[in-house]
Design a protein that fits this description.
Number of strands: 11
Strand content: 15-25%
Shape: globular
Distance between the termini: 73 Å
Structural class: alpha/beta
Bound molecules: glycine
Order of helices and strands: HEHEEHEHEHEEEEHHHHHHHEHHEH
Number of helices: 15
Largest sheet: 9 strands, mixed
Length: 439
């Protein structure tokens, strides 16, 4: 296995599929275009939704991309594991009614073992329980021993849709074994385990179904392919690391955060979590702002604010004074400008937006922290929904942040109560607006 940079892997992937008749498109913006059902693009296929359903004609029946993605569904894992991120890049190849399993399965194997040179004995396959066709191709055409192909149910081997309705289908995943010494227990196996030993590197989705509003799965007119391979994860494997934060995609940013905080990485577990959170979030917010998202209280604007504020709090925990996050932007931009020139064009804008938000947050954070400290030390085991809402509404503490801080002290937050307060406030705002119109 030869060392390759993230940029080299990205180029190699796109070229591999261009050589196989794919049109290469640049990453779409993180802001979905004409799609009110999505807040942010979170998968390589998301910009192509109408092509899968047949609602729109694609510019080519074979497309390849490296797509910017933001996912916050499991944000609490970010910083705590070696491979979760809020922002990541997804390498993908797509067939819109063109090729299907018998082409894409051998190609994926060829790319991993020949182009990237991954040792085949480290690769394991999962397929959907009922997918005999995928089994046959993996086993008889590619030559994978039957005992390295695992059948799994819908929870693991079915993908999509990205919102409530849309295209979806059974999938086959390729996993990489980081080695015996990473095992979590004596029965650690790719069949049952999601521990750090097994890296899911590539998901091949056989998009042949449409889930409708009633939850029915109907066959699509054409069979499609949608694959997704996380660039950070494959870079980790190719670069012989056990953490994505140690790849060339993230290390320069992590080093910058260490330099700013005066902390050394890998000295203290809790410090490392904060260092990784700031690293990940600085990269994510830079890309989001570059694509035109600004911090706010609704939708994707709130997602940005929440991510940014989480980074700021972890910076504070490591002794940084606000504003500091905007100082990491140059490192992010310099590391990514070759692949994403728009970041360089938007460098100053990104810094200005971040700095302004930091200054705003600094004022409220100081006041809110006092209230939170009082709540955490008054002896109760739970922060009430009203207090969590007050922290949110008056002091700018995102709920997720309050939950995280409280969790560190073994205290829970009444999230249902919080939601109730939020709903009541929205209703009050609506009533007030109506009153203004009526009077
Ligand atoms: N669309 C495939 C994936 O995100 O895994």
């Amino acid at each position: 296995m030869k060392y390759m940079t993230g940029n080299e892997i990205r180029e190699k992937f796109l070229k591999f599929f261009q050589d196989r008749g794919h049109l290469m498109l640049p990453s779409a913006s993180l802001i979905p275009q004409d799609d009110p059902t999505l807040l942010i693009i979170g998968a390589g296929m998301a910009p192509f939704k109408p092509f899968f359903t047949g609602k729109m004609k694609p510019p080519a029946t074979r497309i390849t991309t490296c797509q910017k993605c933001v996912r916050t569904g499991d944000i609490e894992n970010v910083g705590r594991t070696a491979r979760h991120h809020t922002y990541f890049e997804m390498l993908g190849n797509f067939s819109f009614g063109d090729y299907f399993k018998k082409e894409v399965i051998p190609w994926s194997w060829e790319f991993l073992t020949k182009e990237l040179g991954l040792p085949s004995d480290k690769l394991y396959i999962t397929i959907h329980t009922e997918d005999d066709e995928a089994f046959d191709i993996w086993h008889n055409k590619v030559g994978i021993p039957a005992e390295k192909i695992f059948r799994k149910g819908k929870k693991d081997n079915f993908w999509g849709p990205v919102s409530d309705v849309g295209s979806c289908g059974p999938c086959s995943e390729i996993h990489y074994d980081l080695g015996e010494d990473m095992k979590c227990s004596d029965d650690c196996s790719v069949a049952t385990c999601e521990c750090d030993r097994w890296v899911e590197i590539w998901n091949l989705v056989f998009t042949e179904l449409f889930k409708d509003k009633e939850g029915n799965y109907l066959p699509l007119e054409k069979k499609n392919v949608d694959t997704g391979m996380g660039l950070e994860r494959i870079a980790m494997v190719v670069q012989g690391k056990t953490s994505t934060f140690e790849t060339d995609l993230l290390t320069p940013i992590l080093n910058k955060v260490c330099e700013m905080t005066g902390k050394k990485y890998k000295q203290d577990n809790k410090t490392d979590i904060s260092l990784r959170i700031i690293t990940d979030h600085a990269r994510c917010v830079s890309f989001m702002i570059s694509d035109g998202i600004v911090p706010g209280n609704e939708g994707r604007n709130y997602v940005l604010r929440m991510i940014m504020r989480r980074a700021l709090r972890h910076g504070k925990m490591l002794g940084l004074e606000l504003p500091f996050l905007y100082n990491i932007v140059d490192t992010v931009v310099d590391n990514y400008k070759e692949a994403y020139p728009e970041l360089d064009e938007n460098r100053q804008k990104i810094k200005d937006v971040i700095k302004k938000e930091e200054e705003k947050f600094k004022q409220t954070l100081d006041r809110g922290q006092k209230l939170l400290d009082d709540l955490l030390s008054d002896g109760s085991k739970e922060i009430s929904g009203e207090n969590a809402f007050k922290l949110y509404d008056t002091y700018g503490f995102p709920l997720e942040l309050t939950v995280e801080i409280a969790q560190e002290k073994g205290i829970s937050v009444d999230e249902e109560g919080f939601k109730k307060c939020m709903k009541e406030q929205k209703e009050r705002a609506k009533a007030a607006a109506q009153k203004i119109i009526l009077t």
